[in-house]
Specification:
single chain, 444 residues, alpha/beta, 4-stranded parallel sheet, two-stranded antiparallel sheet, 17 helices, flat, EPS_sugar_tfrase, membrane, TIGR03013 family PEP-CTERM/XrtA system glycosyltransferase, transmembrane helix
């Protein structure tokens, strides 16, 4: 972080000093503007999550975050240094240097997120617990990050049966606090299977926190590490009293303006593609080019989603709703292609302009499936507290799925979005959607 901030100021001052005699009059302006730009880049990188310690961030996601940072950082650099007095010599060169420094910072962020050096500096994690929950935390962390430094497992007072290999258990060196300090632990993940009286040594955990050791519960751990909210390890109290779920008026207005501007722009750019798609659908099979189907939207309201028809006209001739599957034989040849590259979703932009959907949000489902899933999956209805989206966090993070188990996995990403949604996250999801379209991956 300090390297990034220092780099911007250093580059700007280095260019100024290279100007010789004129440098003396320019340095005060360059230093103040350089510090202002460095502060702005710090805010941008913080908002895009570059300074968060996430174990399983892909190179694609890091590049998307960097691109998002550049979208804001480069115009800011130009705007800030355009305030330098016009009489300043080589003002254009200084401005270009500042913009180059911003680009270098973003490239460094991507490198730092995936370099071996960072792997050697991973947070030292102690897992408090030895049961099934603790074992899940350990295996998940190792799968997400092979270089993760798990120092071991510390058994809870009332955990009778351990599911962790004995070799991975930590021999206590006094209390939990004393053991954590002795091992140089940076973070403790509380993953106790049993929480009866005496199982949670609150005083010791508080002491750990006072000594600078981060203490997180299992639900928060999964949220920060996997960018999802694990249904199996969350309760209503955690959702109610934790942070997030900000649905303020300002956020609603900003999101609506964002939806109108971007959906209108995308519609204009893709009109030729949509026209060709309509012709090809009509040539291949009889029936309408578009189809409308009832879906559940914000607060459970019913609306009709608009999409290009990708299946045969008699796809549900028996009248019984069916999940669409990965290699569904009801899909036409043109349908397979437009579903793969998401062209079939483009007409939903009209739903966005009408205010029934948003560009980014949970995928809208049919009432039949919603009723079934609400009865089977806890907190499923929470996803209806925001508008459904053309694309979403679950769509870019989870492969294709058409079962209740898949719905649970996707819901965990949807809950994360509903809890943490911001304009920056929306922009990131849109950038990742482009990557998904280009690679043909992702959920449908």
């Amino acid at each position: 972080m300090f390297f990034d901030l220092g780099l911007i100021v250093f580059v700007v001052l280095a260019v100024v000093l290279s100007q010789g005699e004129a440098a003396q009059t320019v340095i005060p302006f360059a230093a103040s503007h350089g510090l202002s730009l460095a502060g702005c880049i710090f805010v941008i990188n913080s908002a895009t999550g570059f300074y968060q310690h996430v174990h399983n961030r892909s190179i694609t996601e890091s590049c998307a975050r960097a691109l998002l940072g550049l979208m804001f950082g480069l115009p800011l650099a130009y705007a800030i240094f355009s305030l330098v007095p016009a009489s300043t010599s080589h003002r254009e060169l200084i401005t270009l240097a500042a913009m180059a420094a911003v680009a270098t910072v973003m490239a460094h962020r991507v490198y730092a997120a995936h370099s071996r050096t960072q792997s050697r500096l991973r947070t030292r994690i102690l897992i408090f617990g030895s049961g099934a929950a603790a074992k899940t935390v350990g295996s998940t962390l190792r799968e997400a990050d092979p270089h993760a430094q798990i120092v071991g497992y510390f058994a809870g007072p009332n955990e009778d049966e351990s599911e962790v290999a004995q070799a991975e258990m930590i021999a206590p060196r006094g209390t939990l606090t004393e053991t954590a300090r002795y091992l140089g632990v940076d973070e403790i993940v509380v993953a106790l299977s049993e929480r009866r009286g005496g199982s949670m040594p609150l005083r010791q955990l508080l002491d750990c926190k006072l000594y600078g050791i981060r203490v997180v519960d299992i639900a928060t751990y999964f949220e920060k590490t996997l960018a999802q909210i694990k249904i199996s390890h969350v309760n209503a109290g955690w959702l109610i009293f934790g942070d997030g779920f900000n649905q303020g008026a300002l956020r609603t207005i900003v999101k609506r303006v964002f939806d109108i501007i971007f959906s209108a722009a995308i519609l204009l750019l893709t009109l030729p593609v949509m026209a060709v798609t309509a012709v090809l659908i009509k040539l291949e099979s009889s029936g309408s080019v578009l189809y409308r189907q009832e879906r559940v939207g914000l607060n459970g309201a019913i609306f009709k989603v608009i999409k290009f028809r990708s299946m045969r006209s008699d796809a549900e001739k028996d009248g019984k709703p069916r999940w669409a599957t990965l290699n569904d034989d009801r899909v036409t040849r043109i349908g397979k292609f437009i579903r793969k590259v998401r062209i079939d979703e483009l007409p939903q932009l009209f739903n966005v302009l009408r205010g029934e959907m948003s560009l980014v949000g949970p995928r809208p489902e049919r009432q039949f499936f919603v009723d079934d899933l609400i009865n089977k999956i806890p907190y499923y209805a929470v996803r209806h507290s925001v508008k459904p989206g053309v694309t979403g966090w679950a769509q870019v993070r989870y492969e294709y799925g058409s079962t209740v188990e898949d719905s649970i996995e996707k819901l965990q990403y949807d809950l994360y979005y509903v809890k943490n949604h911001t304009l920056f996250l929306d922009l990131l999801i849109m950038l990742e959607t482009v990557a998904v379209v280009l690679t043909g991956k992702g959920a449908r």
